[in-house]
Amino acid sequence: MGSGIIIQSLSGFYDVMAEEETYRCKGRGVFRNKKITPLVGDMVEFDPEEKVILTVKERSNELVRPPVANIDQAIVVISAVEPVFNSRLLDRFLVLVESKRIDPVIVISKQDQILSADEISGYRNMYEKAGYTVILSEPESLEAMQQVKELFKDRTTVIAGQSGVGKSTLLNAILPSLSLETAEISKSLGRGKHTTRHVELFSINGGLVADTPGFSSLEFDDVTSEALGECFPEIREYDPECKFRGCLHDKEPKCAVKKAVEEEEIGRERYDHYIEFLHEIQNRKPRY
């Protein structure tokens, strides 16, 4: 019996990597009965002779769309232009990633295509003040590519972001042998076509990196009103200073978070998105 990690799933077969060898395995029939679906990123016990996965170990986290498990960090790629920089969309990605206890890093791509960097610089300062690592990236920037590459070491990383922001371009620049397909931006829609069709883990710089088909849903289905503040690091920091336990930082008096916004310790735009997301969660229809 051996231990390994699933690095690819295709048509009912699972590529399991163990000690730098890859074995193409099938899942046990009992998985179907127990409604267990092995995911890319799963740590498994398998029989290298029979090439069968025997057990799937407990997960630290999992994403449904894309289907991948045991992720340590997410590099959230957002473009400066084409598609235009969208802080609300970025904050949606960050909340979804934080809600799964995954460490996010922000990469702003296509820096080489903007005339003035002042606005992007302002956003960079806001997110760095919130506690995030922000990397400004162009594929030609060796320094930025090295920064991203260093993040991969000893971690399992997912590359997240909407279509057309340059996720595959970023990975191709770091490891040209990947030759991942990239796509032009649709002028009519202002967004790219999906070029990544399945999840696969690649070995880069002593870590594993998933190039994914992107999040097909950005809904907060699994995030509660009470948990939302935990997904904003700067709100998480000020929350213990609020007068009332369970403060949602909306209409409550003596709220330390609202005070921090007034004193410009928390970015106004970030707080506005928090309130918008809070009301969205509060108003969603219950699922049965």
UniProtKB/TrEMBL annotation:
<dbReference type="InterPro" id="IPR027417">
    <property type="entry name" value="P-loop_NTPase"/>
</dbReference>
<keyword id="KW-0699">rRNA-binding</keyword>
<comment type="similarity">
    <text>Belongs to the TRAFAC class YlqF/YawG GTPase family. RsgA subfamily.</text>
</comment>
<keyword id="KW-0342">GTP-binding</keyword>
<dbReference type="InterPro" id="IPR004881">
    <property type="entry name" value="Ribosome_biogen_GTPase_RsgA"/>
</dbReference>
<dbReference type="InterPro" id="IPR031944">
    <property type="entry name" value="RsgA_N"/>
</dbReference>
<keyword id="KW-0963">Cytoplasm</keyword>
<feature type="binding site">
    <location>
        <begin position="109"/>
        <end position="112"/>
    </location>
    <ligand>
        <name>GTP</name>
    </ligand>
</feature>
<keyword id="KW-0479">Metal-binding</keyword>
<dbReference type="GO" id="GO:0003924">
    <property type="term" value="F:GTPase activity"/>
</dbReference>
<dbReference type="InterPro" id="IPR012340">
    <property type="entry name" value="NA-bd_OB-fold"/>
</dbReference>
<comment type="subunit">
    <text>Monomer. Associates with 30S ribosomal subunit, binds 16S rRNA.</text>
</comment>
<keyword id="KW-0378">Hydrolase</keyword>
<dbReference type="GO" id="GO:0042274">
    <property type="term" value="P:ribosomal small subunit biogenesis"/>
</dbReference>
<dbReference type="GO" id="GO:0005525">
    <property type="term" value="F:GTP binding"/>
</dbReference>
<keyword id="KW-0694">RNA-binding</keyword>
<comment type="function">
    <text>One of several proteins that assist in the late maturation steps of the functional core of the 30S ribosomal subunit. Helps release RbfA from mature subunits. May play a role in the assembly of ribosomal proteins into the subunit. Circularly permuted GTPase that catalyzes slow GTP hydrolysis, GTPase activity is stimulated by the 30S ribosomal subunit.</text>
</comment>
<dbReference type="InterPro" id="IPR010914">
    <property type="entry name" value="RsgA_GTPase_dom"/>
</dbReference>
<dbReference type="GO" id="GO:0019843">
    <property type="term" value="F:rRNA binding"/>
</dbReference>
<feature type="binding site">
    <location>
        <position position="247"/>
    </location>
    <ligand>
        <name>Zn(2+)</name>
    </ligand>
</feature>
<keyword id="KW-0547">Nucleotide-binding</keyword>
<feature type="binding site">
    <location>
        <position position="249"/>
    </location>
    <ligand>
        <name>Zn(2+)</name>
    </ligand>
</feature>
<feature type="domain" description="EngC GTPase">
    <location>
        <begin position="69"/>
        <end position="216"/>
    </location>
</feature>
<dbReference type="GO" id="GO:0046872">
    <property type="term" value="F:metal ion binding"/>
</dbReference>
<feature type="binding site">
    <location>
        <position position="255"/>
    </location>
    <ligand>
        <name>Zn(2+)</name>
    </ligand>
</feature>
<dbReference type="InterPro" id="IPR030378">
    <property type="entry name" value="G_CP_dom"/>
</dbReference>
<protein>
    <recommendedName>
        <fullName>Small ribosomal subunit biogenesis GTPase RsgA</fullName>
        <ecNumber>3.6.1.-</ecNumber>
    </recommendedName>
</protein>
<keyword id="KW-0690">Ribosome biogenesis</keyword>
<dbReference type="Pfam" id="PF16745">
    <property type="entry name" value="RsgA_N"/>
</dbReference>
<dbReference type="GO" id="GO:0005737">
    <property type="term" value="C:cytoplasm"/>
</dbReference>
<feature type="binding site">
    <location>
        <begin position="161"/>
        <end position="169"/>
    </location>
    <ligand>
        <name>GTP</name>
    </ligand>
</feature>
<keyword id="KW-0862">Zinc</keyword>
<dbReference type="Pfam" id="PF03193">
    <property type="entry name" value="RsgA_GTPase"/>
</dbReference>
<feature type="domain" description="CP-type G">
    <location>
        <begin position="60"/>
        <end position="218"/>
    </location>
</feature>
<feature type="binding site">
    <location>
        <position position="242"/>
    </location>
    <ligand>
        <name>Zn(2+)</name>
    </ligand>
</feature>
